[in-house]
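User: I'm new to structure prediction. If I give you an amino acid sequence, what do you actually give back? Let's try with this one:
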Amino acid sequence: MKKIGLFVLLLLLSVLSIFVGVKELSLTQLFQWDAQQRLVLVTTRIPRTISLLIAGSTLSISGLIMQHLTQNKFVSPSTSGTMDSARLGILVVMIFFPSAPLLFRSFIAFLFALGGTLFFIYLTRFLPAKNQVMIPLVGVMFGNIIGSIATFFAYQFQLVQNMSSWLQGNFSTVMKGGYELLFLTVPLLIMVYLYAYQFTMAGMGEDMATNLGLDYQRTQLLGLSIVAMSSAVILIMVGSIPFLGVIVPNLVSLRYGDHMKNTLVLTAVGGSIFLLICDILARVVIAPYEIPVSVVVVALGSLIFITLLMRRRWT
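Assistant: Good question. You get back a string of structure tokens that encode the predicted 3D arrangement of the chain. For your 315 residues, that looks like this:
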């Protein structure tokens, strides 16, 4: 029954997201809208809501994959250097290929994100696996190093303002014809569902997974590739949204367990719900102005993240 409630909440928030904004759209006067109102609906509101649904579910599932592959509840694309590595890749494209199409930018960002994530996984082999805080802490430090390198070269080529404004998590610029690249993540999510059982086995550890007949290295590479591609696409289209990949999978696992096949859909729905709530708040807090959704995500996400850390500390 609670699962049905989540889907109902997702539907209600999606409808609310369509009707919240500077331009007034009334549900009761749906068939009396003028041409401008219909244009707003089709051009901005519906694409924005779809982008929120896709981004929220994708980032949450990416965090879920990372947590299984690293056997650590606090690892996600934003705490493993994945997002920062993708940002460095985007900077390289901006410097050397400024007129490159979005697909090429996504590909380069994917390569950098995958390389950074693989290096992070390599670093975790030298860290104590039982220390749940050490691994994400190293990941944050690694990401900060990559981010500092990107910022240094951005200053050198006078691209700081351009890069920071472009990569800040914000859905206010999402419009019809400029967000469709996000649909590339849909087949990736389907692939995650098909390999959910293998990712669950990988979460038991390399030795046990190998004893069960799983090709651990291949499964790990597949999972990290999916995370890297998803992170690159999200970063290019809507910017960086931290904490989402950490808090949503943890909240779902506290209630429904760690079997990925059972929690995958709930994690996707939970991520979409959380991001929709944050985006609606971002639109109404200082209306008619709007703040970046990443600011609201950080504010709420950091509180939940600290709560989860304290819970792990005392349990």
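You can read the tokens as a compact description of the fold. Here is one thing that stands out. The radius of gyration is 20 Å.
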